[in-house]
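Sequence in, structure out. First:
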Amino acid sequence: MIENEAKKNWNEIWNYSSAPIEKVELLWDLVFKAYNAKDRFYHSLTHIEQMLHSCFLYKDKIEDLQNVKLAIFYHDIIYSAKRSDNELKSSIIAAKHLIELNY
């Protein structure tokens, strides 16, 4: 199941960090809900899992796997086909979450 694979990857990012587990879980719920919104057709949790799979295939060529995975999770956390500032808004959310996770 895609949700389980994505969550497994999410948890692997935070396994060796000082992030509070309660906050990791809370922010996972927000990530999960964002990518499972009913108006998401392409930018969904399936898309995230596909990107994570590609990341795994090329992991030997990636210098900072953790940061690449974080970028994958957050690159389209905010998405509206009618807006042109999705990436900017997504980066603001990413920065806020990463600060909350002591990253």
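Second:
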Amino acid sequence: PSGNPVDFEHLARYTLGEPELEREVLGLFCSQSVLLLDQLRAAKSDEDWKQAAHSLKGSARAIGAWRMAQAAEQAEALQGDGLSELRSARVDEVEASLREAEAYIATVLESR
């Protein structure tokens, strides 16, 4: 995997290198990830938590945001409603990796 927050070579396999499709997929990723992060933060049950973390992991993997995928995978593994302190730290990690990916996406798209 690329050392960058988003692996554009990985993404190109799914978008066939089409710039407009790439922009659309990345835009969907950014908007959906923010909503999913809110769901993760608001999760009241293990099931809600796991569902939001799993969706974040899948979205990140789809575009090659490997650090975010790893942070979401670690969040997904947490179980037990009493783990609020650990969950808070995981949300912070997912959010930081999402913000890093968003900034990188914006920079790359501006240069194209």
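Remark: Residues 84-110 form the longest helix (27 residues).
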